[in-house]
Amino acid sequence: MPALSTASLPDIVFMLLFFFMVTTTMREQKLNVKVKLPAATEVAKLEKKSLTSFVFIGTPNREFQAIYGTDARIQLNDSFRTPEDIRDFISSEREKLDEADKGFMTVALKIDEEARMGMVTDVKQELRKASALKIMYIARKVESIALAE
Q1: Structural domain boundaries of the chain?
Q2: pLDDT tens, residue by residue, 25-40
Q3: Dihedral sign (CA 123, 127, 130, 136)
Q4: For residue 52, how many other CB atoms are within 10 A of its CB?
Q5: Which has the closest alpha carbon to 56: 39, 38, 72?
Q6: What does the alpha-carbon distance between residue 38 and residue 3 come to, in Å, rounded to a whole number?
Q7: Which of 12-21, 25-34, 55-64 has the lowest mean pLDDT?
């Protein structure tokens, strides 16, 4: 019986390696705040993540609490910011997009369910001033929410 040929084995290994390199997405930013998403029964899947910019609002992680305290903070990219920095953030995110895609840019708000609504309102006002009018709220899907009586 002749020996089994392994000449095509490197081709198969490199094809699999190339497939996983192409299909894997890397985390673009480190999450510095704790975000427990609010529950929702009706959710829609995000279609084009490349046209979405994320704004995180939540309590800073333990390593940042000595500096920033335990109140909810705004995270844009990898750093903590104030609501006034949102206009610069939106303009820099728009500059990264192609001219044809700028009108389809969406801002996704990932907000901790314990965050104060006043901070969320401040963020929304700044987004309005920056003409970022397509806003999406990120939530976790639950089957049904019991109404409190």
Answers
A1: 28-141
A2: 766 677 889 899 888 8
A3: positive
A4: 17
A5: 72
A6: 61
A7: 25-34
65: CB partners within 8 A, 6+ apart: 59
Return mean pLDDT, the chain: 88
Q: What is the pLDDT of residue 123?
A: 95
Give residue 24's pLDDT.
81
Phi and psi at residue 5, to the nearest 5°:
-80, 130
**Nearest partner of 108 among 135, 146, 142, 78, judged by Cα:** 135
* Three-state DSSP class for residue 123: helix
Give buried/exposed letters for 15-51 (b at 16+ CB in 10 A, else e).
eeeeeeeeeeeeeeeeebbebeebeeeeeeeeeeeeb
Structure tokens belonging to residue 112: 């901790």
- Round to whole Å and give the CA distance between 37 and 55: 13
Q: Which CATH number fits domain 28-141: 3.40.630.10, 1.10.10.10, 3.30.420.270, 2.115.10.20?
A: 3.30.420.270
Q: Name the one residue in this structure whose structure tokens are 């704004």.
A: 55
